[in-house]
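#data-curation
PF: Archiving a pair of folding outputs for the training set. Convention for this channel: one message per protein, sequence first, structure tokens after, nothing in between. First:
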Amino acid sequence: MMSKMVFSLVVALPILALGATVAQGRNGGEGSGACEVPDEGSAVSWGVASCSANNFHDLDKQLNERYKILINRLSMQDKLEIRKSEREWIVFRNEKCGIKLNENPVANVQVECLSSFTRRRLEWINDKILHLSGSR
């Protein structure tokens, strides 16, 4: 079972990366946050799905980096509250996006949902950091 999963990852990842490069290249390049959307009525391509997944992973990375900055500026009590809040938010986000426990998103719609929630959480964390910076 494990060897099949590893084989699938080894085969799928380069294909997904190539698809993302193609999709991003047609849409303003890296960092634009926009993935090429197929013509109306056509299926979502691997390239678009991969591009969306890459955008989500970039947002998630930013969220984690900003979360660390926020945590480092808080008192011990506030850290505990934010950690609890973050765990509750992850459960809430996953439920709203149709992700089951320990499951990876499979549909492009799920990835877009995760991206939307993550973008809003990133804004919330940035606001908290800004508020802390202004109160010093």
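PF: Second:
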Amino acid sequence: MRATSLLVRLGGLVAIVGGLAATILGLLYVLQERGMTLGFIEKAVRKGAYEGPASTMLLVGALAAIAALHLIQRRHYGRLGALASASATGGIAMVVFGYLVSGSASDSVFAVGIGMLIVGVVVGSTGVVLLGIVTIGSGVLPRWYGIALIAGSPPGVAIMFLFLTPMVMARGLPGEIGWALAGIPWIAAGLAVFLAAGRRTEQASRVHCGAEGHGARGKLTSKREEGHGDKFRNPQDYTLSKCIPSASSGDVCGLLR
């Protein structure tokens, strides 16, 4: 349980970092559009030098968040959730691989990379949206986590961008604001996963303490039974130990004679 919680937290942190990278890049474009001087990074931002690393970090963060989400609710969302998780993971992995391969000088390899990009975007988008819907229905995590997944998918980002299109057309915002729109939902998703791992660890500790309490009470009951001597020669007179779980105080153990 501790190893799983550690992996879930790590996945949440990676998702947060990836979302932050994309969000910061989008905000830098906004500041540059407003005439702010960005110092030594201004030329690099203007040339788009940070777009490649930011997109890779965002995609890796999305993969980490989806993997962590699968660890949290794999026993709750059934085959549909497993299919959605596999589709999202496979699609995003294809996008990452296709992006890396498409930079090759070979025409055939370039064509393969572009094909993987297109298929990966379609499969990954479908998987992420479906995973968000399944997450909302499972009830394991808050509903806003599923909404964040849907918002962070390519269709979700496109819909949010449509609402900002008038401002982009009026030169109020640069088109690169889409980086921030893509990054913010994955920051929220990573934060939700990280917090969920903390709750799982706390619940596991309570269960462990409750189990130890059962053992201690069971030993005490046995000693009491041994002290009664011949009173328990008849098997029907034996004391039965019964433990009743309580939400407020852990376990309440009583003796039924």
